[in-house]
Amino acid sequence: MFKPQLWHYVEQKCPPGTIPIRRTTENDLLRAEKINRYGKKNQRPFYPPQTALIHSSLNENGHQHAITYVEGDKYYGAKAEINVWAPSIEMPNEFSLSQLWLLAGSFEGDLNSIEAGWQVSPDLYGDNNTRLFTYWTSDAYQATGCYNLLCSGFVQISDQIALGATISPLSGYGGRQFDIDILIWKDPRAGNWWMSFGQNCVLGYWPAALFTNLAEAATMVEWGGEVVNSEPGSRHTSTQMGSGHFPSEGFGRASYFSNLQIVDASNNLQPPGNLNTFSENAACYDVENGYNSEWGYYFYYGGPGYNDRCP
């Protein structure tokens, strides 16, 4: 039997009426710069810019991306199968994640974002394990929102999957590949945003009351990778994105997202349409889109960070 999280080797699920919650330890809190910032993103992730000026400001905050995205319509959810790896993290204050974003609003202070995927974050978890996560904000990452269940917001109903728990097994270079399946969709009646993990597990929901701009729909969907580059020693970090290898290496070597879909106004899954790509520096982390009959719309992404072309 496939066991998507390590704790499943001990228990398959929690007793009726309870949910699994990752324990927050004293050491977790001590790693945080401030207690009131524990479990929150310190810097904003990428929202595809319209001007070179915004490109510059995004590079300054240390976050780098290799993503595929759609915009220009109303989106009521998104889906993807995400290849799972254990990227190397150079500095403990850096992270590497692979996720999908549902976005509405702007970075002027009213951005609403719903996010889910996998991440390696020594600062948040105290280790280099690959873990399932969620995130949300309703004010551009200023005061609202958090990872997982570290503040009120996301309501978990599943007794089988633990947010923040280690994912197992992981993909190996040139070896077997493992994916996780994530779907987020909006309940057209209550307006809540629901998330499922795998084929049959409804994990929980973000209540409609959390959001303003996402009250109706998302205006952009993103899929892809993000890292923090703290520039250790005044050079680019060697923190890896995805598998740590470039998209050109292909299956079994480069990380991928497959079966990209969006949810339309009728609550049906549809192909995403006109996909765009973005990376701040393709010599560090890159992205390449594709389509075939087995995977539908997909892309390979990632890279090693520091190298001869990414000094």
Overview of the structural elements:
The chain is mostly beta strands and 311 residues long. Helices cover 6% and strands 34% of the residues. It is built from 3 helices and 15 strands. The strands form 2 sheets. Strands 2, 6, 7, 8, 9, 11, 12, 14 and 15 form a 9-stranded antiparallel β-sheet that branches. A 6-stranded antiparallel β-sheet has the order 5-4-3-10-1-13, with helices on one face. It starts with 25 loop residues before the first helix and ends in a 9-residue tail after the last strand. The relative contact order is 0.22. About 3% of the residues have low confidence.
Short description:
With 311 residues, this protein is mainly β. The protein is 6% helix and 34% strand.
